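Supplementary Methods S3. Input chains for the assembly prediction are listed below.
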Amino acid sequence: MRWITARRRRPFFGYAAVLLALVAVGMLYAAVTGLGGSTASAGSGSSSAQITEGKNLFAVSCATCHGEYAQGSSVAPSLIGAGAAAVDFQVGTGRMPLKETNAEAPRKTPVFNQQQIYAIAAYVASLGGGPAIPSDQQVSAAGADTALGQSLFNANCAQCHNYSGAGDALTYGKYAPPLTQATNRQIYEAMLTGPEAMPVFNDTTLTPVDKRDIIAYVTQTRAEANPGGFSLGRVGPTTEGLVAWLGGIGALVLAAMWITAKRREDHTGEITGNR
Amino acid sequence: MSDSNERLTMPKPLAKQGAELDDRLHAAKGVRTLLRKVFPDHWTFLLGEIALYSFIILILTGIFLTLFFNPSMTQVVYHGSYTKLDGVRMSQAYESTLNISFDVRGGLLMRQIHHWAADVFLAAIVCHLLRIFFTGAYRKPRDTNWLIGVAMFTLGILEGFLGYSMPDDLLSGTGVRIAEGTLLGIPVVGTYLSFFLFGGQFPGTEFVARFYIIHVLLIPGLLLALVSAHLFLMVHQKHTQMPGKGHTEANVVGQPMYPYFMVKTGAFFFFVFGALALLATFAQINPIWQVGPYTPTAISAGSQPDFYMGFLEGSLRMFPSWTWDIGGHTVSWDVFVPALVVPGIIFTGLGLWPMLERWATGDRGYHHVNDRPRNAPTRTAFGMAGVTIYGVLWLEGANDIIADHLQIPLYLTTEIARWAVFVGPVIVFWATRRICLGLQRRDASMLTHGVETGIIVQQPNGGFVELERPLNEEEIALISAKPPAPLSIARAVDENGVPEPALRGVRGKIQARVHEVFAEGISLAPPANGHGNGHGNGHAVTEGDGERAAVGGGPAGPAEVGEGQAGEEGE
Ligand code: HEM
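Predicted structure tokens for the full assembly:
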């Protein structure tokens, strides 16, 4: 690391980095398109035992709302065609099984372990259609282009999630959550399935490479330090204004009181002038 | 306490140098006056100084930034040391701001001091303005300086807006876009104005360079001139002073410029500088590298202006979307009213207030001793109502952040704000007036009964009384400093009981009524010493020669709220 830091400013480093990135992108792209994401642990290749396990779990935890055959009900949508990726996202982020119906399902600690989630996903996928769970290579940020990711993020995501991914309010009590906890795969799945108020970004809107660039940008942004001091929440001038009033003017007013307090007791050096 | 005529002594070496200089410049008299200038020693008199010192720091750090900032909208591809954005297309303005932040030594610190200083500058102006307002320090002869102040406040806001618009990041570009929309919203000439400012369609390739020249030259120049005029007038007219023992309309009591005030204010400069440096070191402000460069196709959630533009943002957000179509031309009331008419009313009202108050009180006299806010209940109530309106607009400007963090629906915040901006000031006005009058009533009772000590004693007959101590001289001076209400024209009748000509007719009647409202209050004359107890109620006192005489409009009995008594209060 120290070796890199020391040479980071050299002109050749930029070219080297770009070259390296290009090679990596190329290799990964080939890997991804070549393999077609077949490393997914759920979906077409899943065993019937797994599907049966998933069916049982579904009957216990999900059927009350989504219906015995996942056909949907008055309180919850049909999951036929929702796909494995949707299940992995919804259950993996703890949103499902839903506890209470609010404007939006909040992120919670997941109820099921990953094994069980794959099982439910396999069951829902077996009902037909929908996106599969993306493979680790598909969601890897290694070598992705953060610069492109930045442009794509500001154009497609920032209007809801804020430029820094800090999240913000939407209409009717909904909100875009902060992107501080989602794993690479969950970010990918969120784009693929468009949970609730979020739009679906299918592979023609944002290509798989675009999605990886965005993942790289999101994960790098949230991990990077704040060179200017405390981040103040990365929500923009609102907290800055608060700090200017409390920490700036507030402190200075106290200083002004302190500096003029001495007089009170003894009228040191006081004089009287004429108007 | 010494007299101002006392000889001013200087250290020997200084005195000699001074004499040499004076042989050439003949400035001794002026300097001597300046060095003996009396500074009233009250903390609220330092609020203006916070503004002054942050302004100086703004100029100094600003000069540093001009050395590295490139006000050009020429598009380049970034290959700087912030590798996350390597390869992003951006304007040179944004690129050079990234360079200041990451490559110029001390650049980020300077940027952050400059930005924090701007926030503190405007916050200090707001505080300073409020202190001038609530103490009535703007009254004749200082109404000129009040106008200069309002002009500086307006220019300061504009300067800040131009400043944070120049880096050409997504956030600032959004603000400029709103400014363009506002220009377009002006009926008839809006489109022309917008094309004139941006040199064509938004965003064009011109505006950063234009904003730059206004930000670093035009407005700072105007501000410097106005600050000089402001301070010159302040020295020339001398400070006001808070009411207190020995403080009269004919004198000014405080500490001399040299040596006391010079030391204090010098120290205070370093407090301001220190506070800004600390803020800039520990609190990140405007991290443009996170925000990304501006492109008209993108927008971020939570886009907010800096706090001093917040009231305009809120005004825009809460206004209903009213547009008219007149003969094929759209009139955007939803932009024109909230973004131009509302601030127009606020700032014009601020500027005209001293005049309005003169009309409302009929008081055209000079004032050098300030009012305690409670002693001018109607003015204080108007001030608080204004603060309420401003505050609601300001909060609404951040309504998405508030909705997100307090988990209330977004539209509900807007609904609440729409009501609050009309109902809030009315309630606050009424409550403030009641509180002020209540405080006056308590003052009156302190003048008659003294201060309750909280010590309860049992009397021989078994009853309990609370011990009270009489006020000391300073307290009496402070409390009884309320100036008598000016003779209201409501009472100005001639010997035959015929009202003054000015009072006849509808306008006169209205004015007379307004006078009464403004003059309402309790007379707080200082107690006549050694006088007997006005109402013989046998309260115990801890020391002194019995209770203070009763005061008030009437010859005996407790002081009363004098609705309609205004005319008698001068006696
Ligand atoms: C550029 C911003 C400003 C600077 C640097 C500044 C500075 C000062 C200073 C140092 C004083 C002397 C003592 C004191 O603080 O009371 C003063 C007095 C005064 N200022 Fe300002 N001020 C600014 C803005 C304003 C504004 C916005 C207003 C009102 C709208 C205003 C109205 C006044 C008045 C009426 C006085 C005389 C009051 C007195 O002597 O008690 N000023 N100013």
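Chain B touches chain A through 93 residues (CB under 8 Å). The pocket of protoporphyrin IX containing FE is lined by residues B 45, 47-49, 51-52, 55, 125, 128-129, 132, 137-138, 142, 145-146, 149-150, 152-153, 156, 227, 230, 234, 239-240 (CB under 6 Å).
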